[in-house]
Amino acid sequence: MIEMFLNKINSVLPLFHAGTFLRLVGECYSRTPRQRDPVAWAAINVVLALTCQQISPPDGDGDVGARADHTTEYLNRAQSVISDVMLSETRLLNIQTLVGMVMVLQSAHDPTQALILIAATIRLAHKMGLQNRATSAHLGPEERRQHNHVFWLVYILDKDLSLRAQQPSIQVDDDIDLDLPHSLPADDDGDGDAPGVVATSDGNARMNYFLARVQLANIEGGVYDCIFSTRAAKRSPEERLAAADSVLGALEKWQAEIPSEFGGAAVIASMANDDSASIGFFCILHSISLRCMTLVSRAHAWNEEWVRGVHDIVRGTRKLQLPVIWSALVYQARDYMILFEQAWSAEIWFRW
């Protein structure tokens, strides 16, 4: 299961350095239970929980209920020592373990646990100075990469949970001084690609999925500020329109940078048939993009004004004013539904 995690999940969202984590596993299980580092033990159980949650086993055992039970069991083991993880000497491993917990918990219908944990995680990340390149300047290249990767994963989770819960994010963008993932050197353990790079099955096209998620998380922060923030409620109609146009412009630029092979339904033909984990990740990527578009355009079932307008159309009392991006929104929604219909199964995780 550790190998499955490293190959299928960690290669796309680099929570751990593969070699470092494998050494950690070896050291942990070479000791008796009483001698083991509780944080290392928690980290291993978090990895096992993520693997059970996100990856269908190669033997074809599709018992979703059993896998959910195993996920809960591993997560409970990790949480049994959460006081050690949060209150002992702060190391990168502590933060990685908490990030893994949030990755598991954020799939719940009630995000309260994930929201509380991500807040604590960010505070520990700030304590280590992960948001500032100067703090890790004395470290070697590999350690600096790990610090960068972990911070950007924290950032993604913070912005995503903020938008979903309609609550302010913890991390302030202006307080970040780090290289984006694509600016980092390639990992010596790989084939020359930076962590987070995904390739088509024929190897002819590549994209940095990790970078795309970081950039999309930044846009999610803009969507929150545009719609749900206290500042948004105080803006004039003209200011709201300008803010929405700014977010849509950033989203259009982001979408234009996604290679066509990885856009919407095209992912089905681009990825290997048995690569359900990667297809699931792209389902998440495009669903977040689509959610941002619908929220900013205010053309969705949770917007009272839009719903009233639709009802008025049915009654024939007035004409519905469509958003400027309506055609693009409809096209992307239909394209995404093709991807979702072809890719979905009970064994694929679509929450992250």
Automatic annotation (TrEMBL):
The keyword Nucleus applies. It comes from Trichoderma aggressivum f. europaeum. This is Transcriptional regulator family: Fungal Specific TF. InterPro entries: AtrR-like, XnlR_reg_dom. Signal peptide: none annotated. One of its GO terms (biological process) is DNA-templated transcription. Keywords: Nucleus. Residues 114-187 form the Xylanolytic transcriptional activator regulatory domain. One of its GO terms (molecular function) is DNA binding.
